[in-house]
Amino acid sequence: MDAKTQFRRRSEPTPLADALVRMMEPRHTGISQRYEAANQLGEVWAQLLPPEMVQHCRVVDLSAGQLTVEVDSPSYMYELRISSHQLVEHLRRECPQAKLRAIKITLAG
Question: What CATH number should be reported for the domain holding residue 99?
Fold first, then answer.
């Protein structure tokens, strides 16, 4: 068989949609895992706090190991800052896949 014949016998071209799916799958898996970790972290967060505090604190973001929580009052901000070290430790144990390092507490504006 000569080189020209081998070249012609290549497999059919891959449809663009299939190629895109193969390219995006690793990214989608990573996004999906981060979403699941953030979701689980939010659920554990809601269980950790007293019910009256849950109403005033909301998880806003999880990025680069930092959980951002927004509160609607300086007094709740103070409460969370006092207990943030214990909260981080508990969340690390319950949600290791989140790779939590710190909690950032912001005041809703």
Answer: 3.30.300
